[in-house]
Amino acid sequence: MESGNKVIDEAAQGSATVVESENKDGRKVYIESYGCQMNFSDSEIVASILVKDGFSTTKNLEEADLVFVNTCSIREKAEQTVRQRLRSFQNAKKNKPELQIGVLGCMAERLKSKFLEEEKLVDIVVGPDAYRDLPNLVKQVDEGKKAVNVILSKEETYADISPVRLSSNGVSAFVSITRGCDNMCTFCVVPFTRGRERSRDPETILNEARDLFNKGYKEVTLLGQNVDSYLWYGKEGLKKDYKNLSDEEKARSMNFGQLMEQVALISPKLRVRFSTSHPKDITDEFLDIMAKYDNICKYIHLPFQSGNTRVLEKMNRGYTREWYMGRIDKIKAVMPDCAISADIIAGFCSETEEEHKETLSMMEYVKYDFSYMFKYSERPNTAAAKKFEDDVPEADKSKRLSEIIALQNKHSLEINQSYVGKTFEVLVEKPSKRNDQELAGRTSQNTVVVFPKEEYKVGDYVTVKIDNCTGGTLLGKAVK
Ligand code: SAM
Ligand code: SF4
């Protein structure tokens, strides 16, 4: 299956970030990233900061002087993968003692002492808000010390850093618009690892998007843990402090819908995507703006986590089953052709079989194009870890997850079959993995389409008629 530009792209896990640099003789840094797209976007920021300090980036671990792993804490499995990688870097260090090894991102705060002192796996530990300090931290290691900075910030949005993305396809790029999260879902570690929510200055977002378009990019994805909550109020600061502002200051504010409209107006030839939306915050005003502009892609990632109101309340999600269904009804009323995807958790604390069935019935109600489906995994320090028992037996979690996956596969195939015979505008992203005489791109609905190359090339918008499909990919032919 061709992989689309997904928020958690399994095919991209562990890939190296490379950015443009003229420091050919400088020390080389290798950055490997795990987890969500925010982490991949952060790795580009890290690379840009280090390039400015004289480093160059490399895809080749063997030639690196400095190795960084940008880590994910969201589930236990993600942490285990990172540990294994760090151990293999330790082996590489045996042959190259001057090699510096560092941990970036979400695991930094929680595991700093373990990594640095107990297990002695790394030389540098840097949290997601401290990347500007990296040149300084590397110098400390040069001087024979261990270096750590995991301070979470009230202001840092890296607003002025617009990375050049050499590792990307030159067609689509990610632009961060918020950092951190204030939602405190009881299962989630993000508010602890990435701090409180802050919004980035819209001028810098618009400049970055314009600059990407001028460089030939055709698609930007605005990124945040909860993009609907975006709120710029004229200065850097925490979202929670908005209430303390004067009316005059509040009048200068900009919300997500307004930002989206400004980005869409850059050019009708620039597609705009966004992720992740939160069901409690996605507004009618925003959906109307989305419907108004053809270049705002008709695709919403709207995680519901559970279809049962009691479980949702226990998760502290801030909405009920009925509220969520109401949002879906509104999306379908305003944009009948809009694709919807979700995140779903199986076996959260105390979830019963009947409650799990409500998750399945929610899937039947919405018919998601795609879902990220997880077994609940208890994370240290979260409210769920402190207050609730992780009491759904592993076998039940697995059974529920496999039912969810089977239903999703059925729906994905049915939806793709319903696209057969229709024509879509496809933005071409790359040659197909299977056949270099074919191209792969995506529809506005985010579905991957593969079709014969003929005279078309990466970056073109091509009208393709669909004549066949699998559960993950549409197959077709360009219409002249
Ligand atoms: N901010 C986004 C939202 O609220 O929809 C998603 C953030 S999180 C990086 C991505 C997904 O990981 C969540 O939507 C949730 O389904 C899943 N997740 C988070 N914590 C989890 C946990 N402890 N166990 C299992 N899945 C989890
Ligand atoms: Fe985690 Fe909830 Fe914030 Fe998403 S909205 S990052 S799940 S706390």
SSE layout and pairing:
Layout: E1 28-33, H1 37-52, E2 56-57, E3 66-71, H2 76-95, E4 100-105, H3 107-118, E5 124-126, H4 134-142, E6 147-149, E7 172-176, E8 178-179, H5 190-194, E9 198-199, H6 202-214, E10 219-223, E11 231-232, H7 247-251, E12 254-255, H8 256-264, E13 271-275, H9 284-292, E14 299-301, H10 309-314, H11 321-334, E15 339-346, H12 353-366, E16 370-375, H13 383-387, H14 394-419, E17 423-431, E18 438-442, E19 448-452, E20 461-469, E21 473-478
Parallel strand pairs: 1-2, 1-3, 3-4, 4-5, 5-6, 7-10, 10-13, 14-15, 15-16, 19-21
Antiparallel strand pairs: 8-9, 11-12, 17-18, 17-20, 18-19, 20-21
Helix pairs in contact: 8-9, 12-14
Bound molecules: S-adenosylmethionine and iron/sulfur cluster.
Any descriptors?
five-stranded mixed barrel, 480 residues, globular, six-stranded parallel sheet, binds S-adenosylmethionine, binds iron/sulfur cluster
Radius of gyration: 22 Å
- Major sheet: 6 strands, parallel
Apparent shape: globular
Read across the widest sheet, the strand sequence of neighbours is 2-1-3-4-5-6
Helix content: 25-40%
Question: How many E-type strands?
Answer: 21
Strand content: 15-25%
N- to C-terminal distance: 26 Å
Q: Which kinds of small molecule does this entry bind, naming each only once?
A: S-adenosylmethionine, iron/sulfur cluster
Contiguous runs where pLDDT drops below 50 for at least 5 residues: 1-7
What is the SS-derived class?
A: alpha/beta
Q: Tally the helices.
A: 14
Q: Compute the average pLDDT.
A: 91
Question: Would you kindly provide a written description of the structure presented here, covering whatever features stand out?
Answer:
- The chain has 480 residues and is an alpha/beta fold.
- The strands form six sheets. The protein has a six-stranded parallel sheet with strand order 2-1-3-4-5-6, with helices on both faces.
- The longest helix is centred in the last third of the chain and has 26 residues.
- The protein starts with 27 loop residues before the first strand and ends with a strand.
- S-adenosylmethionine (SAM) binds next to strand 15.
- Iron/sulfur cluster binds next to helix 5.
